[in-house]
Specification:
- There is one protein chain.
- The chain has two domains: 42 residues, Homeodomain-like (Arc Repressor Mutant, subunit A, Orthogonal Bundle); 160 residues, Tetracycline Repressor, domain 2, CATH 1.10.357.
- Helix content is 57%, strand content 0%.
- It contains eleven helices and no strands.
- Helix 1 crosses helix 4, helix 5 runs antiparallel to helix 6 and helix 6 packs across helix 11.
- The longest helix has 22 residues.
- Keywords: DNA-binding.
- This is TetR/AcrR family transcriptional regulator.
């Protein structure tokens, strides 16, 4: 009996992920995006992973913490990239194009469509103030880059940000990664939406925008390691 106490897993691994924490996030992403937050329990998450419910709390203190981790997983990297782009000497047009492409690229790189979590009513709760701050920061950067192209009073100020997030409605949510992250390639949808962001501003497309964006992403990732 004593040997069974604290056994973390009821059966063999059944989720994507190299660690129990990653498996929990994968299961939670599926359940939250298909069933919603309120109707998903920690028991269901643990069962989907194949661990005991008590073991789940070793990795996350609550369902809310799991949800917050998933929310920030696609915002924090883009905020870091945006900060790195802000320190570069490239044009506002290229910085905006790169930011739209990078955010879209990230939202396409997950098995489950975690961008759907932004749309759930619970996401507006004060419990997720960290996410709200990061989202506001990212949106402000989008706006400042857009303003540098068309002016601060232009009614199109928010369009590039919403174009980037429109990929949430375009991708599937079936457990298959639409576009795995690659160092030498951008997803076609990311290029299309980044082009559209500049087109709606009547701004010319930067030369070598794909290659230069990939270089900027590599530099930003290196600086943030």
């Amino acid at each position: 009996m004593a040997g069974a106490v604290g056994r973390p897993r009821k059966n063999s691994p059944r989720r994507s992920g190299s660690t129990a924490r990653e498996e929990i996030l994968d299961a939670s992403a599926e359940l939250f995006t298909t069933k919603g937050f309120a109707t998903t329990s920690t028991h269901q998450i643990a069962d989907a992973v194949g661990i005991r419910q008590a073991s789940l709390y070793y990795h996350f203190p609550s369902k809310t913490e799991i949800f917050l981790t998933l929310l920030t997983s696609t915002i924090a990297p883009s905020t870091k990239l945006a900060a790195a782009l802000g320190d570069s000497e490239v044009s506002p047009a290229l910085r905006l194009w790169s930011l739209v492409a990078a955010e879209t690229r990230l939202l396409l790189s997950t098995r489950w469509n975690v961008g759907r979590l932004y749309q759930l009513p619970i996401a507006s709760s004060e419990e997720f103030s960290i996410y709200h701050s990061q989202r506001t920061e990212l949106k402000d950067i989008f706006q400042s880059l857009t303003a540098a192209i068309v002016g601060a009073d232009d009614p199109r100020l928010d369009l590039p940000f919403h174009l980037a997030l429109s990929v949430i409605e375009m991708r599937q949510n079936n457990g298959t990664v639409p576009s795995p992250l690659k160092d030498d390639e951008l997803p076609a949808i990311a290029v299309m939406l980044a082009d559209a962001a500049l087109d709606v501003l009547h701004a010319p497309l930067p030369e070598d925008r794909i290659t230069r964006t990939l270089d900027l992403i590599r530099i930003a990732n290196a600086e943030n390691q």
